[in-house]
Every structure is written in structure tokens, then in C-alpha cells.
Amino acid sequence: MKKIIFTDKAPAPIGPYNQAVLSGDTLYTSGQIALHPETGELITSDIETETKQVMENMKAVLEAANMNFEQVVKVSIFISDMNNFAKINSVYATYFNEKTAPARETVQVACLPKNVNVEISMIAVK
User: Fold this and answer.
1) Which residues neighbour 79 within 8 Å (Cβ) at sequence distance 6 or greater?
2) What is the pTM of this model?
3) Which Pfam families match (predicted)?
4) Nearest in space to 124 (alpha carbons), one of 29, 5, 10
5) Which residue positions in the chain have pLDDT lower than 50?
6) CA-to-CA distance for 53 and 44, rounded, in angstroms?
7) Can you tell me the distance from the alpha carbon of 108 to that of 99, in angstroms, rounded to the nearest whole number?
8) How do strand 103-108 and strand 72-79 relate by DSSP bridges?
9) Number of domains, the chain
10) What is the extent of the structural domain holding 66?
11) Rounded Cα gap, residues 80 and 91, in angstroms
């Protein structure tokens, strides 16, 4: 059985998908970009600020499922420019304990929704 997870503390979906789906004890999140949940404004002034907004959006989705970053087991990061990897990684690292950090891949892609620079999705287990 699946349960749809939604919070107004993260951006509303902009298509036929949900912020996250809980199936049993496993949470599958959709990718989050740097949309401010209250204003709908894209936060892209610099890559660190953009990444922080993405992670804060993801935090809100996890919390809506009564979960947190410690329960994340897999992360997918999509970036438009691999030259931003170190800056993205430095912000990302502040949300995880390095010793218990999840598995992860980071992939450079040609284009992301709304031409953002970073999109992140996660899988978490209770």
C-alpha cells in the first residue's frame, strides 16, 4: 500500500507526480529544485544558496513523512555543471553525518526543470 506525502513547506508538484510516496517503511521522494515553497520563486543567486534551498525543501518532505536525513539510504544528485560539484557537496555535507551518510550518485545532465543548476531526490527507510 502506498501513502502520498505532501507538505506546503515544500514546493507543490508542477506536474502529474507527488512530493513523495511512502510504501511500507520506504519513502521515495521526487526530485526537488530550489523553488521557495511560499513564493514559488526560484532561488538561484549562487550555487550554494540554490543547493541549500533544495536541501531545505527535501528536509520538509522528509519531515512530512516523520523522517529525517539520518534515515536516508540513497541520494541522486543531478547537476547542470560538474564544475559546481565541490560547492554543492559542501552544502550537502552539512545535512549528513559523514559516518552514516547514504549511498549517492551525482550526474551531470544537459538540462534540468526551469533551467536550475541542481535537483536532488532521495530514498529513506524508517
Assistant:
1) 85, 88, 106, 107, 108, 109, 117, 118
2) 0.97
3) Ribonuc_L-PSP (PF01042)
4) 29
5) none
6) 9
7) 26
8) parallel
9) 1
10) 2-125
11) 16
